[in-house]
Write a structure and sequence with these properties.
This protein has helices at 7-14, 38-55, 87-98, 104-115, 137-150, 163-175, 184-199, 217-228, 252-258, 301-316, 337-346, 358-365, 386-391, 403-418, 426-440, 444-448, 484-493, 520-537; strands at residues 30-33, 59-63, 72-78, 126-131, 154-160, 208-211, 234-237, 275-278, 285-290, 296-299, 327-330, 370-374, 380-384, 456-462, 470-472, 477-480, 499-504, 510-516. The protein is of the alpha/beta class and 545 residues long. The protein is globular.
Length: 545
């Protein structure tokens, strides 16, 4: 590669690696202060071309730091079906990001040998690049472009887009799904068309207020909004360019963690209205409303997954017994116990637990014909099996389908078009929720009343080394230190409706504690008592909890 790609040396000179920084590619890719990332961007341009040459397909690169503050940025690669990089390539990303400038050409050569990649200009390496609205994004994308050019790859700039739109563009263009429209262009058309098929025969919905987190979801939603009329009127707030700061006192994380309404929503005059909330790159969604007393009602990922699974059960009924499908609602241990009970006992649907992290949920969801997963933070989607996608064209020709049955089958088909199977997508998920509420004739109050969350409390304990704690059973049981789990069990059993688990953080020397119980007071006490046991048995540092 050193001979074939002369731009590699000059690119390395123009984008030198900072000497004292170690970069780690995690679930969210690389994410740190924007002024640290220039060399990483150049090198991820290189890696994206190598990945594209390896698989012979388009690869995506998204420049975003999601719900982080505006001074941060990040980068992650997107595989051909819109999924995350395989684990081995995450390792390559870290290796390439960290080698010294002079060792970069040799590292590229070695990677090509290990993976049998023909790294030649004649082998096409197409890379789609998108970015969020962060001011640093444009400059960082130029470094990325230099990386793609250094290996004679082909870069397509998708501009300012949501993370899910980039995943969608990579997936649909690799599958050649939408003829005559490339990438993001087809996204709005497809969303609006599927939404109309779901709500075209019902009364228009009441206007929906949307907090766009002063992020990229704002301009993208505004492009789509006119196409949703007259079925749904969007009232977009906290859109970039109106004085607000990305993710500051706005966005799904703020609402979920602080249990407060975002800026520009008024609890005195907007009671009873439903509101949707995006995060900074529009791949998470939660809802909220103001109760009659002005307090905030939160509808998080658990509530969304239960609404979605309820509607799917309804639409699948007319297909029985000719077509039967498996359905699962995939959760992590952070799902509220009341939500898990509702899925298993009221809906009669499987609700397996996986370890925390989207890749675990996504992987488990592929085991079902309809795999529904939403983390409590609002990140999630629905996956359909190949069999389900193949069958959908045959449903309408079933004999003895009633008029209502035919309508259900049409709507089920439209759902498979509306849902972004590549990744959690706030815009797609919002339209999904709106379509379901409209078809069920439900208000936000009726949705929230499906079940009542058990009060819960999150806590964290600083420890000398997080490696002291190891877990099993989807992170719900601590294996080491020996005896810790017995003490947690004893505390939980002594608490009415008590449940608690601990798990090591993936990024820092901290142990995270989750506790839930019949009252908020007992949940707080349980979390504190478990934190104290962790502090004592797992080498706590600092003040005792």
């Amino acid at each position: 590669s050193r001979v074939a790609f002369p731009l590699l040396a000059s690119g390395t000179t123009n984008h030198p690696k900072p000497s004292d920084t170690v970069f780690q590619y995690g679930t969210a890719g690389f994410r740190t202060k924007a002024d640290q990332l220039e060399s990483v961007m150049f090198r991820m341009g290189l890696l994206a071309v190598l990945r594209a040459r390896k698989v012979g397909r388009i690869i995506g690169v998204m420049v975003t730091a999601s719900h982080n503050p505006v001074v941060d940025n990040g980068v992650k690669l997107v595989d051909p079906m819109g999924e995350m990089l395989p684990q081995g390539w995450e390792g390559y990303a870290s290796r390439i990001a960290n080698v010294e400038d002079g060792e970069l050409p040799e590292t590229i050569d070695n990677l090509c040998k290990e993976e049998s990649i023909r790294n030649e200009a004649s082998v096409v390496g197409t890379v789609y690049v998108g970015r969020d609205t962060r001011p640093s994004g444009e400059h960082l994308c130029m470094a990325l472009r230099d990386g793609v050019s250094a290996l004679s790859g082909h870069l397509i700039d998708c501009g300012v887009v949501t993370t899910p739109q980039l995943h969608y563009a990579v997936r649909t263009d690799n599958l050649h799904e939408v003829e005559g429209m490339a990438g993001v262009e087809s996204y709005n058309w497809k969303m609006a068309t599927a939404f109309r098929q779901l709500v075209g025969d019902i009364e228009p919905l009441t206007p929906l207020g949307v907090d766009c987190a002063n992020g990229v979801g704002g301009p993208q939603l505004l492009q789509l909004a006119d196409m949703l009329l007259p079925n749904l009127q969007i009232d977009a707030r906290n859109v970039p360019g109106h004085g607000g700061t990305l993710n500051y006192q706005v966005g799904s994380d703020y609402v979920k963690v602080e249990k407060k309404a975002p800026q520009n929503f008024d609890s005195t005059i907007e009671r009873g209205r439903r509101f949707a909330v995006f995060d900074g790159d529009a791949d998470r969604l939660v809802y909220f409303y103001f109760r009659d007393d002005g307090s905030l009602g939160l509808l998080d990922g658990d509530k969304i997954s239960i609404l979605v699974s309820t509607y799917f059960r309804q639409l699948l009924a007319p297909l029985h017994p000719h077509y039967t499908y498996t359905m699962g609602v995939i959760q992590t241990a952070y799902a509220n116990g009341a939500a898990t009970r509702y899925v298993r006992e009221v809906l009669g649907v499987e609700a397996p637990f996986t370890p925390t992290g989207v890749k675990h949920l996504h992987h488990k969801a592929t085991e079902y014909d309809i795999g529904i997963y939403f983390e409590a933070n609002g990140h999630g989607t629905v996956l359909f099996s190949p069999r389900f996608m193949e069958d959908r064209g045959r449903w309408a020709s079933l004999p003895h389908l009633s008029k209502e049955g035919k309508k259900s089958v049409r709507k089920l088909y439209a759902l498979t078009e509306l849902i972004n199977q590549a990744v959690g997508d706030a815009i797609s998920d919002m339209l999904l929720v709106e379509a379901i509420l409209g078809n069920m004739g439900w208000t936000v109050y009726q949705w929230d009343a499906m079940y009542e969350d058990l009060p819960n409390k999150l806590a964290k304990v600083s420890v000398k080394s997080r490696s002291v704690i190891t877990t099993t059973d989807a992170e719900t049981r601590a294996v080491t230190p020996v005896g810790l789990q017995d003490r947690i069990d004893a505390l939980a059993q002594a608490t009415p409706q008590g449940r608690s688990f601990v798990r090591p953080s993936g990024t820092e020397d901290v142990v995270r504690v989750y506790a839930e119980a019949a009252t908020q007071e007992t949940a707080i006490t349980l979390a504190r008592d478990v934190a104290r046991v962790v502090f004592e048995m797992a080498g706590g540092v600092g003040d005792t909890p």
